[in-house]
């Protein structure tokens, strides 16, 4: 039974997992859907009540019925490397490729439907609350007056994108920034704005979850760090990430969150306050883990490899099907 990895050619994190899989004897096929059709080819038929399909890539042929798991890492958009690319060919290729993979019994990290739904930050906040995680007071609004009222109730705020990275080529992270006192909120009318109470944090926490295995890492904020320097990704701090224990209540809530979201993988960001409370900021269903592994030596790539190569169906998903109670949007 084969592990299928969907990612672009240059992906060091995928390399780390492939290196772990190499020792297991489990066959691995790695491909980029951007190379379909061409370097990647597919064929499938629905005849006599059964589906049979296969994929070929890099001179390897794999039967879809032999797929154990699919890791959706950093796949390119189908049909973007052909001589005559078009939106139509991309849609056709996407439907054929992912539609067939959905017809298999493979376990997904993460299933595209679950991944798509999990990207919505407002939904993440809702699910975090429902899972029992502390969530800093947040508003998302296009009413300038609502923003002003919120700033009166919570005078120390940050602003960040509702949707995450800016979709330019290559995508650009938009830093979370502190809102200055006396800010004029009239521009809020031009686009949904996410305002959140700033957590006066003593550390940032990255909790990487692989199946039911949790890897928490902590990066302390220096005692004389500038409070305007909010976003850990852009901070000048040189303090490394180091491993920490996950508090049991957080672990229970995180398991509930991942189960409800039907995610096999999630990278949570928390802000730890002076009382040691971990405030939920987001759960990135495709969050990077390479930098954490390198700094902490936590065996995250190995855990991903273990999950992908484990036999049997996904324990979180009955009959290999996902069930949604809410519209993925
Ligand atoms: N309310 C907050 N209080 C303190 N720091 C925050 C807050 N929200 C975000 N940050 C910082 O900004 C970083 C990015 O914010 P995050 O919510 O993870 O959004 P995204 O990564 O989608 O831009 C966090 O990892 C954290 O360092
Ligand atoms: Mg983040």
Describe the overall structure.
The protein is an alpha+beta fold. The protein is 26% helix and 28% strand. It has 8 helices and 16 strands. The chain has a 5-stranded antiparallel beta sheet. A 4-stranded parallel beta sheet has the order 2-1-6-7, covered by helices on one side. A 4-stranded antiparallel beta sheet has the order 8-11-9-10, with helices on one face. Helix 1 (12-22) crosses helix 8. Bound molecules: adenosine-5'-diphosphate and magnesium ion. Residues 269, 282, 284 line the site of magnesium ion. GO terms for molecular function: ribosomal S6-glutamic acid ligase activity. Residues 2-113 form the MvdD-like pre-ATP grasp domain. One of its GO terms (cellular component) is cytoplasm.
Derived from helix and strand composition plus strand pairing, the structural class reads alpha+beta
> Can you list the ligands bound to this structure?
adenosine-5'-diphosphate, magnesium ion
Give the total of beta strands. 16
Strand count, sense and barrel status of the largest sheet are: 5 strands, antiparallel
* CATH hierarchy: architecture of the largest domain: 2-Layer Sandwich
Structural shape: globular
Low-pLDDT ranges? 317-321, 324-329
CATH homologous superfamily name of the largest domain? Answer: ATP-grasp fold, B domain
Strand content: 25-35%
Descriptors for this entry?
globular; Dna Ligase, domain 1; binds magnesium ion; 26% helix; four-stranded parallel beta sheet; alpha+beta; five-stranded antiparallel beta sheet; D-amino Acid Aminotransferase, Chain A, domain 1; 329 residues; 8 helices; disordered C terminus; binds adenosine-5'-diphosphate; single chain
């Amino acid at each position: 039974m084969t592990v299928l990895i969907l990612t672009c050619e240059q992906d060091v994190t995928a390399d780390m997992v492939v290196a772990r899989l190499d020792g297991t004897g489990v066959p691995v096929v790695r491909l980029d859907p951007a190379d379909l059709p061409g370097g990647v080819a597919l064929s499938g038929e629905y005849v006599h009540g059964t589906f049979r399909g296969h994929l070929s890539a890099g001179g390897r042929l794999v039967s879809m019925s032999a797929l154990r798991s699919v890791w959706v890492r950093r796949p390119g958009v189908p049909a973007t490397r052909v001589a005559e690319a078009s939106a139509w060919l991309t849609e056709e290729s996407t439907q054929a490729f992912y539609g067939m993979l959905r017809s298999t019994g493979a376990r997904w990290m993460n299933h595209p439907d679950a991944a798509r739904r999990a990207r919505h930050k407002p939904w993440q906040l809702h699910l975090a609350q429902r899972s029992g995680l502390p969530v800093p007071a947040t508003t998302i609004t296009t009413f300038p007056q609502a923003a002003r009222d919120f700033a009166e109730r919570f005078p120390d705020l940050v602003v960040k994108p509702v949707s995450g990275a800016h979709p330019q080529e290559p995508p650009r992270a938009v830093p979370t920034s502190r809102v200055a006192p006396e800010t004029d909120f009239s521009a809020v009318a031009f686009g949904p704005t996410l305002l959140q109470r700033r957590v006066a944090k003593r550390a940032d926490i990255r909790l990487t979850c692989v199946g039911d295995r949790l890897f928490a890492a902590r990066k302390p904020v220096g005692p004389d760090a500038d409070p305007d320097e909010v976003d850990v990704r852009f901070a000048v701090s040189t303090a490394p990430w180091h491993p920490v224990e996950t508090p049991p209540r957080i672990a229970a809530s995180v398991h509930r969150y991942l189960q409800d979201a039907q995610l096999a993988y999630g990278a949570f960001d928390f802000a730890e306050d002076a009382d040691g409370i971990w405030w939920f900021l987001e759960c990135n269903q495709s969050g990077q883990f390479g930098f954490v592994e390198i700094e902490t030596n936590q065996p995250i790539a190995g855990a991903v490899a273990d999950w992908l190569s484990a036999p049997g169906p996904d324990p979180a998903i009955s009959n290999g099907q996902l069930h949604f109670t809410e519209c993925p949007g």
